[in-house]
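HTH arsR-type domain-containing protein
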Amino acid sequence: MDLQADDFYSALSHPMRLRALVLLQQEGELCVCELTHALALAQPVISRHLAQLKAAGLLLSRRQGLWVYYRVSDALPEWATQVIQTTIVGISNTSPFQDDRQSLQTMSDRPNQTCC
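Structure:
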């Protein structure tokens, strides 16, 4: 993957995209509905941010029935993966990142348990 640093940082410059990426890296893979619940945003807003992260090459998606699942791309260059991991270590116990993860844990109808 030929990810340019300016594209990487531009994609993460919006707080919601950073929050979504951090949550996806921590959880592995999430459905759009899970991100909507955790980040307390409307589905079109979440989908727009996810599309921007995907266009930058940071995310991969897959469709399962009606649901679309996202995960951090495993083709990211090592430097980008290190930046994401270092960021998570530094911010995971702070608000809003900790709050996002707690909110996700309170979602009662998560996919693969029952559908959204």
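The mean pLDDT is 93.
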